[in-house]
Amino acid sequence: VINLAVLMACLLLPQETRPVDGWGMWALSTPTIWLILSVIQIQNDSWTILDQLISVVGLIVLFIALPYVAYILISVTQEETLRIKPQRLLYQLILIAVVVGTIGFSVGRFNHLILTCEDFKLAGYDQPAQCYDG
């Protein structure tokens, strides 16, 4: 959603004041293309070349578009962040953000190793299928 908002905002700006160029606009559009292709794929039950295309676009989104969108958002909203000296400190901050995000994802994905079924009951939530009953 953020990616689409940035893309639409860039399209509304005059071309000479846009923070991104042609390749940047393409990178910003790949998550939207990926979403559209995924919706089309859901309607199609058989394996097609579309499945492979979705995988390729998904990899492009993961490794090119998302870091680029993060860079654009930081450069537009927090421009002074990109001027942190020494440059190594900026890379360390990025690494910390990636590590914290990975830990958060892992805790959510592998909650059955951390939380028991009783924890979900106490919190008032439905128990996930893979919760630990011990």
Helix content: 55-70%
Question: Care to count the β-strands?
Answer: 0
User: Radius of gyration over alpha carbons?
Assistant: 20 Å
- Report the portion of residues in β strands: under 5%
Largest sheet: none
Report how far the terminal alpha carbons are from each other.
Answer: 39 Å
Poorly predicted parts: none
Mean pLDDT: 81
The structural class is: mainly alpha
Order of helical and strand elements: HHHHH
Overall spatial form: flat
Counting DSSP H or I runs of 4 or more residues, the number of helices is: 5
Question: Topology of this structure?
Answer:
Blueprint: H1 2-12, H2 22-43, H3 49-77, H4 87-109, H5 117-123
Helix pairs in contact: 1-2, 2-3
Summarize the structure.
The chain has 134 residues and is mostly helical. It contains five helices and no strands. It is flat and about 60 Å long.
List the keywords.
134 residues; single chain
Describe the structure.
The chain is mainly alpha-helical and 134 residues long. It is 69% helix and 0% strand. The protein has helices at residues 2-12, 22-43, 49-77, 87-109, 117-123. The longest helix is centred in the middle third of the chain and has 29 residues, at 49-77.
